[in-house]
Amino acid sequence: MRRRVSIFGATGSIGENTVDLIRRQGGVETFETVALSGGRNVARLAEMARELRAAIAVTAFPDRLEELRAALAGSGVEAAAGPAALAEAADRPADWTMSAIVGAAGLVPGLRALAHGGTLALANKESLVCAGPLMMGAARRHGACIIPVDSEHSAIFQALAGEDRARVERVIITASGGPFRDWPLERIARATVAEAVAHPNWDMDQRISIDSASMFNKALEIIEAKEFFGFRPDQIEVLVHPQSIVHALVGFRDGGLMAHLGPADMRHAIGYALNYPDRAALPVERLDLAAIGALEFRAPDTARFPAIRIARSVMETGGLAGAAFNAAKEAALDAFIAGRIGFLDMARCVEAAVEAMSAAGDLNCDTIDLDKVVQTDHLARIRAEEAAARSRPD
Ligand code: NDP
């Protein structure tokens, strides 16, 4: 029997790499593609859906439906559009689902896919940041298995294999430090979008590249580690490691540290999640450590990269703070890309939004549900926009 797979965010960087691995592992001979989703790139979505003979292809944007229909004409692939269609596509049973939509929009498809009790390969870290207890609770309830795809979390997951989590003292997530790693604060304040997207090690989309430059991506990852593995915030450390060879380390109570090393190629983590618990041969570069020669590590500078400090305060606040943090971050990122605020204003806007909501009691909540997450997301975007309107590019 072929394995049933769905890929949400198929046209993105993680999605393309997932399709590449599926193709290399036999394509339609091995996999039955249930659903593929994309956003604006409907031509690519249709191309993939034809190649993998998907049952349905969904674009997130209703204004692209006609274009998708036209591109799929005669293929037998069903076309649909919009958030409700995405959720319905996730309701179609699959054994393995890739959650690789960018941003909070990835939450609902991932959550709905957990109901099948299969495997959810989770690249969309935002779902854990916004609604960790909801995601983890749904996985437990339905007997589903979430395999993290973020390279750092995949590394921790792999280092923990066969270990008792109660014996873990700390985890260390590495960060390349991004393009502004060695820039002085005054220069970072004037950084442009083009400068922020020039990531030294990883080839990524504009949004995640800017999040890497500001370390908001690392901030999301700390919260993701807390939600997924259940570590206390004080057990999660960040270490700047410019070479991006060591992805994470797990420290045990006997003082031993298990490090996971690999090339900067997301196909390792995606392939691990696709084949888990097996380890299939993957088309990634084999590390030549002698050629690399030296690996450097240093403490992150939270004065130049305040996102990590803000994430720690978000974890202390708990409740809906993660949802507010993520949404405010997305709104601040939009404002930076649009040239309405400067690079360092992003952190100021996010902190102002989360603090305003915390002071107003908007983040208190005993049990997180989807409605509360959606409302918090909405309000945080408004608060971040208000803060952005008060800022001027530095
Ligand atoms: P991309 O921006 O490359 O791709 C995002 C995907 O989501 C595309 O298919 C895009 O469609 C689709 N999309 C965009 N907006 C929406 C929306 N509003 N609703 C539904 N779908 C939408 O992102 P990445 O692949 O880089 O990242 C995906 C996720 O994986 C993110 O959460 C990211 O943090 C995480 N991740 C990424 C890593 C990387 O190396 N890239 C590493 C680790 C984690 P289209 O392109 O057609 O518009």
List keywords for this structure.
394 residues; alpha/beta; 7-stranded parallel sheet; 4-stranded mixed sheet; 11 strands; 46% helix; binds NADPH dihydro-nicotinamide-adenine-dinucleotide phosphate
Question: What does this 3D model show about the protein?
Answer:
It is a single chain. By secondary structure, this protein is of the alpha/beta class. It contains 17 helices and 11 strands. The protein has a 7-stranded parallel sheet, sandwiched between helices. Strands 9-8-10-11 form a 4-stranded mixed sheet, covered by helices on one side. Helix 1 packs across helix 12, helix 2 packs parallel to helix 3 and helix 4 runs parallel beside helix 5. It is globular, with a radius of gyration of 20 Å. The mean pLDDT is 96. Bound molecules: NADPH dihydro-nicotinamide-adenine-dinucleotide phosphate. The site of NADPH dihydro-nicotinamide-adenine-dinucleotide phosphate has 27 residues, from helix 1, helix 6 and helix 10.
Secondary structure elements and their pairing?
Layout lengths: L2 E6 L4 H12 L6 E8 L3 H11 L3 E4 L5 H8 L5 E4 L1 H9 L4 E4 L7 H7 L5 E4 L2 H18 L2 E4 L2 H9 L8 E8 L9 H5 L3 H4 L9 H9 L1 H14 L6 E5 L5 E7 L4 E5 L5 H9 L13 H4 L14 H11 L3 H17 L7 H15 L10 H21 L4
Parallel strand pairs: 1-2, 1-5, 2-3, 3-4, 5-6, 6-7, 8-9
Antiparallel strand pairs: 8-10, 10-11
Helix pairs in contact: 1-12, 2-3, 4-5, 5-6, 6-11, 6-15, 11-14, 14-16, 15-16, 15-17, 16-17
The site of NADPH dihydro-nicotinamide-adenine-dinucleotide phosphate has 27 residues, from α1, α6 and α10.
